[in-house]
Amino acid sequence: MAHASLIAVSTPVTPTAKTTGGLSPWREKLVKKMILDGLSETLEITRLAEACALSRSHFSRAFKRSTGQSPQAWIRAQRIARAKHLMQSTDLTLTQISLECGFCDQAHFCHLFTHSAGISPFAWRSRVQRAQPYALGAG
Length: 139
Hints:
One of its GO terms (biological process) is positive regulation of metabolic process. Pfam families: HTH_18. The protein is an all-alpha fold. It has helices spanning 25-37, 45-51, 56-67, 71-89, 94-100, 106-117, 121-131. 58% of the residues lie in helices and 0% in strands. The longest helix has 19 residues, at 71-89.
């Protein structure tokens, strides 16, 4: 009795350098610059999409493909990062920092910061200052 032998032939799959469906490099660079330059302002997704000559929905999908986050989540992460930098390098109040980073008020900032960092902004700043006692006011 003859046994049929199956040989699996596989063709090597080479990963693509960039996920398809994302923003082109120039669009991604443009939008990230617009976001970072305007963090203290209200950022509308429609305006970012228009700068890329894309519809709002197409822009949002492409942005998420390129960055791994929705535009809103990426903006929020950048605002939190800037807030951490300001808390670490200035003696601005949390209210001043929240406004400087584009949050509508300190309560909203505290809520989002705590959700993101797992600790309140005041506690985070205190912890950082204890770890680096000469960070503020060092000249």
